[in-house]
Write a structure and sequence with these properties.
single chain; 157 residues; alpha+beta; Ubiquitin-like (UB roll); DNA polymerase, domain 1; 2 domains; five-stranded mixed beta sheet; 5 helices; 32% helix; globular; binds FE2/S2 (inorganic) cluster
Length: 157
């Protein structure tokens, strides 16, 4: 059903007249031009499309826009602040924590939620939290190192 949906997107009040069953991923990529959110499996399994809604990770490929009504959403485009990359983004760059980069937005936003909840997670906690975000290029070790650095927990077990 077509209706107007209001939410906050990367800090800005946003109102869209859309089919309320349209998936968030298509709204972001095609309606709003925010192509940092990637289409991987399309079935909620890979995490490439991860965005943050009210401080929780959400799979945009399998979440209808109606579910973000009245909520606050963060995409990878909203993570930098005044032209400066977020500490997690900087750590990913420093550690070359990607190869093709297709999983990277989802990885970074998933790590962002982890560090919002646990500022100094252990390596085991990082691995557990990131387990559902897949990287086909096998960059997992460098991804974990980048998150450790961003958390300031490089030496913890
Ligand atoms: S594209 Fe959404 S989880 Fe894979
Ligand atoms: S860097 Fe290619 S899928 Fe992760």
């Amino acid at each position: 059903m077509r209706r107007t949906i209001s939410f906050t997107l990367n800090g800005k009040p946003t109102r869209l007249a859309v089919d309320d069953e349209r998936m968030l991923l298509w709204i972001l990529r095609y309606d709003l031009g925010l192509t940092g959110t990637k289409y991987g499996c399309g079935e909620g399994l890979c995490g490439a499309c991860t965005v943050v809604v009210d401080n929780e990770t959400v799979r945009a490929c399998s979440t209808p826009i109606s579910e973000v009504a009245g909520k606050s959403m963060l995409t990878i485009e909203g993570l930098e602040h005044e032209g400066k990359l977020h500490a997690i983004q900087q750590a990913f760059l420093r550690h070359n924590a990607f190869q093709c980069g297709y999983c990277t937005s989802g990885m970074i936003l998933s790590a962002y939620v982890l560090l919002q909840k646990a500022s100094r997670p252990t390596t085991a906690e990082i691995i557990r939290h990131m387990d559902d975000n897949l990287c086909r290029c096998g960059s997992h070790t460098r991804i974990v190192e980048a998150i450790q650095e961003a958390a300031g927990s490089k030496e913890r077990g």
